[in-house]
Amino acid sequence: MNNMIPKEKLSAYQRWEMASLGDTPKTASQAQADAQRAEAERQQMVEQLARLREQALQEGYAAGLEQGREEGLRQGYADGMAQSADASQRLQQLTGQLAAEIGRADEAIAADLLQLALDLSKAMLKDALAARPEMVLPVVGEAIRYLPALHQPALLYLHPDDMPLVQEHMHDELTKGGWRLVEDHHMERGGCRVETATNQVDASLQTRWQRISAALGKPDDWLA
After folding, report:
1. What's the confidence (pLDDT) of residue 166?
2. Sheet bearing 200-203, strands edge to edge
3. C-alpha distances in angstroms, 222 versus 26, 105, 106, 129, 156?
4. Going by fewer Cβ within 10 Å, which terminus of the chain is more open, N or C?
5. Long-range Cβ contacts of 20-29 (<8 Å, 24+ apart)
6. CA angle 159-162-164, nearest 5°?
7. First to last CA, the chain
8. What is the pTM for the complete model shown?
9. What does pLDDT average to in each consecutive run of 10 residues of the chain (224 residues)?
10. Distance CA 190, CA 159 (A)
11. pLDDT by residue (tens digit) across 10-49?
């Protein structure tokens, strides 16, 4: 059996040659380099995107913080002004109330001081009359001279203990005026009462004291 193929039946062919072993490492190295470069570029892009994102977040945060701070300042200022106005109004109210309280306190203190002065004056006058009974003389003299034209009978009422003193020091004046002395056990020492047919003068201590205290706006009873 002939295994030979006739020449005319052979078609064109390409010669196969074994590739050089050195070409394969070069291609793999290049591919690896390209892959590394692509990875580096991708990583760089990722990092850049991360930086841009972080920058955007920081800028947004800063802008928001500034806006919030400004709004907070405006709101805080508005709140502070409102609170200040409320506090000022409250202070004015308290000041007015305090002034009113001080005014009332001053009035009360003045009234108390006046009452104290009257009480002290009353006590001093009583002590003075007890120590100096002759103080009744000018009172009697003023009372009888208050009625220059007298109509009989003319009566002078005195405390029994004041009678001798008045008779001793004012005998001539009383006799000339036609006065008749009358003991009055209800009359306090240091006072007197003058009566004629048409007039009367009450110079008792109680009446004189009531006139003085009433003039001071503080009616006060001599016997209180």
Report:
1. 92
2. 179-183, 154-158, 192-195, 200-203
3. 138, 27, 26, 14, 21
4. N
5. none
6. 125
7. 175
8. 0.47
9. 52 48 54 71 74 74 70 70 74 75 68 59 64 82 73 84 92 87 91 85 81 71 56
10. 8
11. 444 445 444 444 444 556 566 667 667 777 777 777 777 7
CA 209, CA 222: separation in Å to the nearest integer? 6
Q: Copy the structure tokens of residue 194.
A: 């003058």
DSSP string over 108-174: HHHHHHHHHHHHHHHHHHHHHHHH-GGGHHHHHHHHHHT--S--S-EEEEE-GGGHHHHHHHHHHHH
